[in-house]
Amino acid sequence: MNFDRSIKIAPSILSADFANFGQEIQAIETQGADWVHVDVMDGHFVPNLTFGPPAVKAFRPHVKTVMDVHLMISPVDPYIQAYADAGADVLTAHVEAGPHSHRTLQAIRATGMKAGIALNPGTPAEAVEHLLDLTDLVCVMTVNPGFGGQKFIDMTAKVRRLRQMIGDRPVHIEIDGGVDPSTAPLVAAAGADVLVAGSAVFKGGSVSNPSVYGDNIRAVRAAAEGVLN
Ligand SMILES: O=C(CO)[C@@H](O)[C@H](O)COP(=O)(O)O
């Protein structure tokens, strides 16, 4: 996984057909997804339950790009090795999930995975300033985590501040929640490069009508890239 700051679209499979993950992953990748975003929720850190390591392991053979696993769980550390074994490429933990994010990021990197740190909308950029040398990705939540299909919360000032703090480090800024062609330009202009989109990618499409996914991915990408040229 080489670092670059081009716009990457990471569909969240939280909006996919849960009875058909293999084909859904293949469809979004064939239709232009750069990464595949997997939302892990524990019913404790967030009020919803989704996948665990066995599901991530089952997704692995279908993902040909980058499997980007977002842990909305607490605690994190006891499960890091299980997600490495399951085949995650990027593993992101929340800075609010425990008192030892520094240790968590070191433990993630020690497995060979890329390490991400996520911030809830209420958490300031400064909460991760001391972690920037240990992280490959900062995920800025633009909804309160737990569910797809929520309204975008404007975090562009936080994204700008983070990009300034990151400087020339090779750190991605990922945006997660309510990303669509109307919100993507705001965050791209502020310095984000990885755009997670669930509803905006999967709406109107299916594995038997996958070109809609392609249209949706292209619409988000074009809106984001449009402000960079
Ligand atoms: O992590 C989350 C929600 O907690 C996200 O990944 C959502 O799944 C994105 O969905 P949309 O807001 O794009 O529908």
UniProtKB/TrEMBL annotation:
GO terms for biological process: pentose catabolic process; pentose-phosphate shunt. GO terms for molecular function: D-ribulose-phosphate 3-epimerase activity; metal ion binding. Substrate binds at residues 12, 70, 146-149, 176-178, 198-199. CDD domains: RPE (cd00429). Belongs to the ribulose-phosphate 3-epimerase family. NCBIfam families: PRK05581.1-4 (NF004076), rpe (TIGR01163). This is Ribulose-phosphate 3-epimerase. It comes from Ruegeria conchae.
